[in-house]
Amino acid sequence: MAGTRIAETNHNNKLPADDEFIREYTTIGARAMAKKYDVGERSVHGRRRRVAERQGVVLKGGVGGFAVTLNQHPSAIPLHIQNGVVLVASDAHYWPGIVSTAHRAFVKFCQDLDPVAVIMNGDAYDGARVSRWPDGSWADAAGKPTVIQELMATTDSLEEIRKAAPKARHIWPLGNHDARFESRLLQSASEYAGVEGVRLKDHFPEWEPCWAALINNDTVIKHRLKGGVHATHNNTVTAGRSIVTGHLHSLKVSPYTDYNGTRYGVDTGTLADPYGPQFANYTELNPLNWRSGFAVLTFHKGKLLWPEVVHVTGSSEYEFRGKVYQI
User: Fold this and answer.
1) Half-sphere exposure for 86 (CA within 13 Å, toward CB)
2) 142 and 26 belong to one structural domain
3) Could you read off the pLDDT of 203-215 as tens digits, one per residue?
4) 44 contact partners, CB below 8 Å, separation of at least 6
5) Which CA distances in Å does 14 have to 31, 174, 298?
6) Phi and psi (nearest 5°) for 14?
7) Which of 25, 54, 72 is the last residue of a domain?
8) What is the pLDDT of residue 10?
9) pLDDT at residue number 198
10) Residues 194, 206 share a domain
11) CATH code of the domain covering residue 291
12) Could you tell me which residues are beta bridge partners of residue 295?
């Protein structure tokens, strides 16, 4: 870690250089540092955020504190990409018998673009029968697929994607719906912990599970961070990096520029049909500010170019780079 002091404004200059700041912060915490250096506690926390961004670490202060380098975290997958394409989709919520337009387009892009990595950014599995949402009617309960039916649909769909891009790395950050599979078992049958098949990843052995994929130390791909209509903006401001998320199904790109340059908050939308049966129970067929599609990330000389999205515009139809295509 850098030992030289990075210029800070006002009384933050009283605080030590990054490496010493990390050592003290993780040992004595923000309150003690504020007292030691005669600055406000808010100033210490502000410095912590900037140090974390510069050094690529997660910091926890005080007794029992720690500093974890993100790229070395066991729940992260680091990628170093100089030139190439990464395809990112999320929220497929695969159900038996349903193949969405977005899924078919994603398979085609995997075949045509020769991606370096294909990332299914959470919620490939829906978990309808292990949901915390109550059924709204007997018809809702009767219409839900079984766990094994969903597993088979998800396995088949992920295998189709994998075969379409055989040279790519296949990475799968866990989503909250994915977690339903294991959390339900953990709650009701914890004695089976460690048995083959009780973890969702056991069923998709060709995909690398993680909480986040980290590309070139400046791009994070994970299922979710902030919520709300401004999530993509708030995500990249909070992360200090470009960040690609799913979860909210909104499909958009929000650029953010400061003294460090331009970075991006990206929502990859949903591979499912927004008005598909997966969502009818808890959305009650309300208007949905959701869009079906996925993201195309292009790296040139190690730099992420402006992210692009593929947007489904109708049945068997999608748009990309100003043109409409049939699939």
Assistant:
1) 32
2) no
3) 889 999 999 999 9
4) 15, 25, 30, 33, 34, 37
5) 15, 41, 41
6) -70, -25
7) 72
8) 44
9) 74
10) yes
11) 3.60.21.10
12) 88, 309
Output the average pLDDT for the chain. 89
Same domain, 218 and 305: yes
Long-range pairs of 209-212 with CB within 8 A, sequence gap ≥ 24: 209/172, 209/173, 209/174, 210/75, 210/76, 210/77, 210/171, 210/172, 210/173, 210/174, 211/75, 211/76, 211/173, 211/174, 212/70, 212/75, 212/76, 212/77, 212/173
CA distance 71 to 53: 13
* Contact between residue 268 and residue 242 where contact means Cβ atoms under 8 Å apart: no
Helix, strand, coil % over all residues of the chain, rounded to 5: 35, 25, 40
8 Å CB contact between 223 and 216: no
Residues of the chain with pLDDT below 50 are 1-11, 138-139
Contact 228, 189 (CB under 8 A): no
What would you measure as the largest C-alpha separation in the chain, in angstroms? 66
Name the domain count of the chain. Answer: 2
- Tokens representing 164? 């379409």
- Relative orientation angle of helices 18-37 and 41-55, to the nearest 10 degrees: 180
CA proximity to 298, closest of 283, 308, 284:
308
Element (H, E) at 3: none
pLDDT value of residue 267: 98
Q: Which amino acid is at 275?
A: Y
Q: Are residues 18 and 139 in the same domain?
A: no
The pLDDT of residue 167? 96
Amino acid at 195: V
Cβ density class 59-77: b for 16+ within 10 Å, e for less: bebeeebebbebeebeebb
Each residue's pLDDT tens digit, 108-163 = 999 999 999 999 999 999 888 776 555 555 445 557 888 899 999 999 999 999 99
